[in-house]
Amino acid sequence: MERWPQLLNPLIRPAGLVGLFALIVAGIFYLIDPKLELYIRPLLAIGVVLVAAFLVGVSGELRLLMQGRGARYGTNTGIMIVAFVVSVFFANCLVIRVNQRWDVTESSQFALSPQTVKVLQGLTRTITVTAFYSPELSDRAAKDLLKEYSNRSERFVLQPGSDEGVVDPLRQPALTNKYNVRQDGSIIFEAGSDKQTVSRVDEQTFTSAILKVTRGQQKKLYMLVGHGEREYNDFRETGYGEIGQALRDDNYVIESLNLVLSSTVPSDAAVLVVANPARTLADAEKVAVADFLRKGGKALFLLEPRTRTGLEEVLAEWAVELRDGIVVDPASSLREDPSTPVVQRFNFTDITRDLGLAFFPRTMVISSPVEFGTVITPARSLDQLISVEPLASSSAGSWLESNPDQAQFNAGEDLPGPLPLAVQVGPAAFLRGAREPESPRRTRIVVFGDADFASNRYLSQAPFNNRDLVANAVNWLAEEEDLISIRTKPRDVRRMFLGPLESNLIFISSTVLLPLAVLVAGAVVWWRRR
Amino acid sequence: MRNVRAIWRREVGSFFASPIAYAVATVFLVFSGLIFSLNITSSQEASLRGLQGTIGIILLFLAPVLSMRLLAEEQNTGTIELLLTAPVRDVEVVLGKYLASLTLLAGMLLVTIFYPIILYIYGKPDLGPILAGYLGVLLAGGSFLAVGLFCSSFTRNQIVAAAVSTGVLLVFWFLNGAAQNIPAPANTIVRYLALSEHFNDFNRGIVVLQDVFYYLSFIAIFLFLCVRSLETRRWR
């Protein structure tokens, strides 16, 4: 064995090196993609063969080495290294367990509120979160917040295979379909079969979503039927199929309710939805609805002008007044149709907080006999303090047209704008967020003077947010009294204004002047040493 | 300690006398200046957030160049024998040289104070994330230099030292990407070992103890290996 290497001797060492190199490259290829067998196999083969030849070739020397003093020292060194690395490894494990982190931002951007931490630490189900962001939309805020959440709990899991929780909807059509994602920037919280979709990145939204999705039971929406109302599984133009689907994606269960057959609204109703009854309700039905509201029920009414429903008295009990007619708003309406007001500025409420634009094809006015914001006690619900607030109003140049044949403002007949087109009735403002010691029932009502804006045809026309308006209203109505309220921290973005002059200045000084200064310093030093 | 300081001083002097340090610093400043100015003029945001990720990669390639000379040259010129037989412990040699390269890195980073100054002139940046970001870069850069020193200890050829350290650093930096193909639970461990895995929180403004500890461990291990490597020369 020690003789034939005479010929190959000079080749043995490099052969071993090449063999080792081949093995390493094969390893790297495997790590990149185990399926690259075309490259991995031959490299592996070459590597093994060469290394084996090397070992054989130097077997003589190896034997000597093993016996020598060097071998003892070598093994000693090896053991020391292993011991050191292992101890460092364990030290790291301890530090990981301690899980200490310091937020050094000025506004403590990344510190989660104690309520959120409590929710996260109390999780009993695993929540999987997926954020759908196309490359054009900035996902940094979402990633940052998701990371803070996932750090606090092992049960808060970011979608496996995602980039810190973010997925490009175009590249993952299967996931996009699974979660029924319609909008860029949607974040889905999933626990078992319950899902919640949100689009705002803030602690309140995220933690609320977690609470909703781990509740284990879904909230029920009952839609009144029997009077030609819009239906949630109707996907024709006038139907409510789309909004129905959107609400189901938001973890609601929707059922029909026929108040002729069942004389009361079921007690498990989170929200009663009355969507454009085309005929008058029977007395018994009106009584059922009125009772439901008095007991702290929540209801959404989408009514159309020039339609008798008989709900006027029911709503009057809650200081809501319907003013029939068609609102004409030439100053702010859809292009060819002045009787489709476009609302650009909403009254600031929880429902309308981040809304942009909405439009209402043919709407009446929803108003109140008392001034908006006044705290009152409904006659039949003496333990409640409520106030009526407008949600959306038409512009100052609008009017309520009582005579549809004349599209002209007639003083005396027609009511001038600005006019409220939708209202919310709920606990008086000063009570919101506070826990009331008695009276757990707090009625909430939202009334829209138009039902078309939520129909399939008009629901999702960009750039209008009709859909968010309805979804927010339902969410506000269904909101549990004990869902937490976290004060949102505004995102801390430090803006600078750099005009072209400044930009150029900065560019030149950082990219040219600064390095040049260093180069010059080097030249000076070199010159001095000559 | 006296020995460490002596070696450190000598090595720093060497650095400032050699053209390599200035070349590396210039290249570093050109690239980071470019990224910095492009970043803030497009984002109009008074922060160094886009920058620190790129600085990490730039340093990954430059650090081996800085450290390649440290031990390889001594072996080449034969002065290594002098060093090893002098009444100086191997640990002191390693520490002295390492701290010298670290000083150089710190110097380069000091020059980049220029960027936050610009931010303060035109806006109101948040100081915390900036300082934390510098800490992160210093730790990561320190890790790169430790690898460079180690690789420089077992060859006479500076180029080989630089090439091997670059290779090792690339593997460690991108290890987390490779972890995707490894089944759990091994993949969490592999991910943890990746240099880039611990880098990004610093410039968000969060100092995570395990990130700091990771980099310190990384440096400790490679310096330890380096000392052992020198030791083996005695009986090689």
Structure notes:
Chain A has 530 residues and is of the alpha/beta class. Chain A is 38% helix and 18% strand. The model of chain B has no long low-confidence stretch (mean pLDDT 88). By secondary structure, chain B is an all-alpha fold. Chain B contains 11 helices and 1 strand, in the order ααααααααααβα. The two termini of chain B are 28 Å apart. In chain B, α6 packs across α11. Classes of the chains: A alpha/beta (530), B mainly alpha (236). Chains A and B meet through α1, α4, β1 and α14 of A and α2, α7, α8, α9 and β1 of B.
Order of helices and strands of chain B: HHHHHHHHHHEH
Shape of chain A: elongated
State the helicity of chain B in percent bands: over 70%
Number of helices of chain B: 11
Rounded Rg of chain B: 19 Å
Strand content of chain B: under 5%
- Count of β-strands of chain A: 22
Give the tally of β-strands of chain B: 1
* Major pleated sheet of chain A: 8 strands, mixed
Question: What's the number of helices of chain A?
Answer: 14
Average pLDDT of chain B, rounded to a whole number, is: 88
Largest sheet of chain B: none
Query: Termini distance of chain B?
Result: 28 Å
Kindly report the spatial arrangement of strands forming the biggest sheet of chain A: 8-7-9-10-22-21-18-17
Look at the structure and give the mean pLDDT of chain A.
83
Rg of chain A (C-alpha, Å): 35 Å
- Apparent shape of chain B: globular
